[in-house]
Amino acid sequence: MKGLKLAAAILVFITLTFTPKTEAKSLFNTRQVIAQVTDSQTEKQNDTEIYFKRGFKRIESKDYRGAIEDFNEILKIEPNNSYAYLGRGLGNFCLDEYQAAKTDFDKAIEITHDIPYAYYFRGLTNFALKDKQGAIADLQKSFTLFKQEGNQEFAQKATDAIEKIQQS
User: Fold this and answer.
1) Tens digit of each residue's pLDDT (9 = 90 or more) over 12-53
2) Within 10 Å of residue 5's Cβ, how many Cβ atoms?
3) What is the DSSP track for 114-146?
4) Taking the C-alpha atoms of 97, 52, 140 and 122 in order, what is their torsion angle to the nearest 10 degrees?
5) What is the distance between the alpha carbons of residues 157 and 138, in angstroms, rounded to a whole number?
6) Residue 61 CA from chain centroid, whole number
7) 100-107, long-range: CB within 8 Å, 24+ apart, which pairs?
8) Checking phi first, is residue 7 left (phi over 0); if not, alpha (psi -120 to 50) or beta?
9) Closest C-alpha among 147, 86, 162, 96 to residue 117
């Protein structure tokens, strides 16, 4: 990210409620996304931090288009910011714009290959796009990465989602 050391931790709490006939978007019953960005040294970094915080607050308040605008502003400043692609992808997912969401999650993974949330949400997006095998593969990858991070809660959510997709 060209000199910018951005440490972003994203916590996402999702209640998985799923029946075989429901769409992937129903896997989101509650959303709370919090981004933590390190203290900035430059004006550009301060701008990025402001857009991150506001973007994720907009996701929380269901202002998905506003959130996408904020993540777009980050990408103008920092075109290879994987977390901005992740946030924008989440906004697109919530708007049922699954192909745009998948493109954003793909880009986040291309830039930073070990973001478990990117695989998790791309898995849900793949399921919404009726790609069960892609969904399961991404959720399995997210499970592995969550386990490596010690995030047992989300490792379990990934496992639960895999099981429910397999049953559908």
Assistant:
1) 323 222 222 233 444 432 233 333 333 333 445 678 889 999
2) 9
3) T-HHHHHHHHHHHHHTT-HHHHHHHHHHHHHHH
4) 10
5) 13
6) 16
7) 101/125, 102/126, 102/129, 107/82
8) beta
9) 86
Domain ranges of the chain: 9-167
pTM (two decimals): 0.76
Contact indicator for 88, 114 with CB cutoff of 8 Å: no
Angle between helices 43-60 and 82-94 (to 10 degrees): 20
Please give the Cα distance from 39 to 25 (Å, whole number): 34
Q: Does domain 9-167 have CATH number 1.25.40.10?
A: yes
What are the backbone angles phi and psi of residue 35, rounded to the nearest 5°? Answer: -110, 135
Q: Which residues have a Cβ under 8 Å from the Cβ of 43 and sit 6 or more positions away?
A: none
Taking the CA atoms of residue 83, residue 86, residue 91 and residue 95 in that order, the dihedral angle to the nearest 10 degrees is: 170
Task: Give the tokens for residue 126.
Answer: 């793949």
pLDDT tens digit sequence for 49-107: 899 999 999 999 999 999 999 999 999 999 999 999 999 999 999 999 999 999 999 99
The answer to whether the beta carbons of residues 108 and 82 sit under 8 Å apart is: yes
How far, in Å, CA of 12 to CA of 35, rounded? 10
CA distance 62 to 86: 16
